[in-house]
Amino acid sequence: MSRQRKLQIVLEVLIILALLAFLVGQVYTEPERQAPMAVDFGTSGNKGVSFGSLAQTQGLTNMSVSFWMYYNAVRSGDYGDVVSQYDDAGHGWWIDLVDYVAPNANNLTFGINFSDTDGGWKLPTDTLTAGNRYHVTITYNRSATTNDPVFYINGAEVAESEVSTPVGAAATDVENLVFGYGGYGGAGNGTYVILSDVRIYNRILAAGEVAEIYNSRDINAVPYGLVFQATFLENGAYIDRINGAVGTGAGSPAFVPDTILNWH
User: Fold this and answer.
1) SS3 for 212?
2) What CATH number matches the domain at 36-257, 3.40.50.1980, 3.30.230.10, 3.90.79.10, 2.60.120.200?
3) Phi and psi for 18 in degrees, rounded to 5?
4) For residue 103, is pLDDT > 60?
5) Residue 231 pairs with which residues in a beta bridge?
6) Alpha-carbon span 128 to 133, nearest angstrom
């Protein structure tokens, strides 16, 4: 075979390959990657997101809840739920920015239902102030009424005080996982924050792991024991990265760019 014929064959093969690549490109186009966002509950009204009843987040003996938040404004009244999984029948736990024991007080609080008396703990008033961004982690073991939660703000442990000592057996939290308005959708239970990277673990995070999440700003940091991690996308979707659960918004919360976290 002549050299000229060999070159001709090579060119014909290249042309065929180019045509095949073009045809494949017409059939399949890689979907546009959705930019990760944060969800903004504004400074008024009763906005929230519900992921419904999730078996993987319910009944955890050991739990850690972690999230980034920008504190838009302090609201008056009681409740002010940030992340919660409870109802008004006394089942579950909640994290508030308004002291449920002393309404109108600006306290980060954690509460959990027990059969006789609920447990409640809080940080000193105005530990968190409006106009600032915080990383919050709370860990808790519900196996004994003598156990206290551990609060972390921006990767460092902060001393809490007990405002209600739990008595009885821990109630089963079979209710919806909710951000924003109260776990049972009660009017006026909204809170004024921007939320991002909400996580729930089925174990107690160590202090070093909490610091790693805070310092790295990496959504892939500390994956062990992670049973829920919320992703908010620019197309208006609320997605659990771990199990694919889809959340539903109420009250028209807004989506804003997530400018602090490393999404990759």
Assistant:
1) helix
2) 2.60.120.200
3) -65, -40
4) yes
5) 239
6) 9
